[in-house]
Amino acid sequence: MKLDKGVGLVETKYETVAVPPNDLQLECGTRFGPVTVAYETYGELNDRGDNCILVLHALTGDAHVAGWHSEEDRKPGWWHDLIGPGRALDTGKYFVVCSNVLGGCYGTTGPPSINPDTGKFYGPDFPVITIRDMVKVQYLLLKKLGVKHIKAAIGGSMGGMQVLEWAMMYPGMLDAVIPIATSGRLSAQCIAFNAVQRQAILMDPEYKEGRYEPGKGPCRGLALARQIGTITYKSDESWAFKFGRTFSSLREEDYYCFDGKFEVENYLDYQGEKLVKRFDANSYLYLTKAMDLHDISRGRGNYSKVFSRFRGKVLTIGISSDFLYPKHYQEEIYRYFKDNGAESYYWELESPYGHDAFLIEFDKMSRKIGQFMATIS
Amino acid sequence: MKLDKGVGLVETKYETVAVPPNDLQLECGTRFGPVTVAYETYGELNDRGDNCILVLHALTGDAHVAGWHSEEDRKPGWWHDLIGPGRALDTGKYFVVCSNVLGGCYGTTGPPSINPDTGKFYGPDFPVITIRDMVKVQYLLLKKLGVKHIKAAIGGSMGGMQVLEWAMMYPGMLDAVIPIATSGRLSAQCIAFNAVQRQAILMDPEYKEGRYEPGKGPCRGLALARQIGTITYKSDESWAFKFGRTFSSLREEDYYCFDGKFEVENYLDYQGEKLVKRFDANSYLYLTKAMDLHDISRGRGNYSKVFSRFRGKVLTIGISSDFLYPKHYQEEIYRYFKDNGAESYYWELESPYGHDAFLIEFDKMSRKIGQFMATIS
Predict the structure, then answer these.
(1) Rounded Cα distance, A18 and A34, in Å
(2) What does the pLDDT look like over A180-228, one tens digit per residue?
(3) Which residues pair with A316 in a beta bridge?
(4) Are B176 and B209 members of one domain?
(5) Is-catalytic flag, B322?
(6) Chain B: nearest CA to A180, how far in angstroms?
(7) Does one domain contain both A155 and A300?
(8) Quick one: A262 and A326 in the same domain?
(9) B227 to chain A, minimum CA–CA distance in Å?
(10) What are the pLDDT digits (tens) for B180-193?
(11) pTM of the predicted model, to two decimals?
């Protein structure tokens, strides 16, 4: 992570959209609203409102993509190195927007939000949402912000699913899309990994059918879900390099007991605990379910043909060591866009870090994404 | 699975070994015994006692490798097609032996067995065991059966770990070893997957610190552990082929609710429930821990050099689509045996089935293993 300034001091802002009677028609059939949206912007929107870059975040991400929130706590956003003056997503030219997704727990309306009709937390009464519903909310936010046109939509994993839905739902509004480490419809293996993570949460007695107090709830279950997820975000090679078989105790007797742990186990524990402090279990359930339902061809006909909706530029990025979203899924996205008339490119990010590489390999990604952005007028 | 006879009707037999005062010195330091060993044999031991083939089973496997237990229930053993007259492991020539591992729950002494000192189940008082401890018990069994020499030891996954420890512990007793889809020391990624599976069991309130009644206990936790394991035993390709995104209900409303499931989820549920009926949660904890501790170099010096202990023939088999035990671990085993003077071969089993391929691809394996066995005098 570079320590230079980038976009510097930023703040999370809030807008309310989908206010009844103009509330949101969700895919599940329910009408829903109002929706508060937490978002951040970097750079300036031009007069024509056509210089927007839309960044979409992954499962446990948030709107804080770049810069920091206070000079005391300079914790940079999750793509800090990619965004700023002169960077790959150049805030000297572009108006960069990222918002927390519908169903999330970082300021946008989701299960831990108060239901205005009841004065209580939505919890398990929150409707089942889809990637398309998230995109609709983002569209309403951009309209409110005065954005007329998007230069590029970019995101990895669940963010990449939103990128693809943007291309399907509002193709005329976008010049380019950059889906990373994602797929056009969630694979059976990914559904399986999501299912076991949800079960970890559901079997925690503290889950209480979702009616726990926000901030409390199924801590062990959520931690375990995160641990399972964490394994899938890395690679055999990265685990081997980072931890190998290092044991966390030098006492021989610890080796032959269940409390004795390998360093990789301590790391998983730490990752689990860290997420529990920052994430809501119901949000985790709803967002993984939204991923499961992700299929850009649903209700739109043949999968290979649905790509014809978007004829702009496409840069699809696959990661060499990603076993959760193997690169053939990204090659497929590239090919189907190309076969259907888009100007489509594929780039393989050579990295040992597995699925997480798109949150780590800033230098390599900056170069490639910067080059691609330079081709967009 | 071929429906021909193979070894036909067989039965599980039992021997008691490690009877005090000649009980077993476990690696953890504890002395332990007596140990009942459940085992099966196919073919006849010759007069010199030197025509044995030792088959070693994986995590939830058992001694029932071939044939069936009754004419009414012709459920064949887990490697039925590989074993029989004229087959790859030819019972016309060889005396094939397989026993349930120490710590297991299929007849060999393990956590669900009665502790003769207390009259109660061992449960969590069972000592932490290792792959080497399992091999010691197998050695004692073979001695009792009159086996003087082993033509080949063969097994996949945890079975392969035992194969490698046989080569390290009793090298003079073996002509050949066939480790399949395994590693010389468990990888950090495998430890991580084992750790989350154990946590699933431990967080089930019915676990009761391991003091549940055998046959009862942490059913949900064990089922979840098995589901996680099941995902790692397959491949993205095999999940895609078998289930894709098939949804298990035709009702639109089921799609947008948490009870609605994809077929892959139902399959995982089924696999979880099936294991709960046949396996003990404490055994699951102890055997995965034994795998974590697996490292053929522990206490023996440099990993790459420890292979020099065995100078016989080696056929190491890797599986092209295995992401749990990626093939480079088997290539490493092959190379280190070769570099240290063994007659070492590597064969890649081309298969889309992932780690489980060694329990599925009988035809391909029969051919290759049969060829290799033909070279052993």
Answers:
(1) 5
(2) 999 999 999 999 999 999 999 999 999 999 999 887 899 999 999 999 9
(3) A346
(4) no
(5) yes
(6) 18
(7) yes
(8) no
(9) 7
(10) 999 999 999 999 99
(11) 0.97
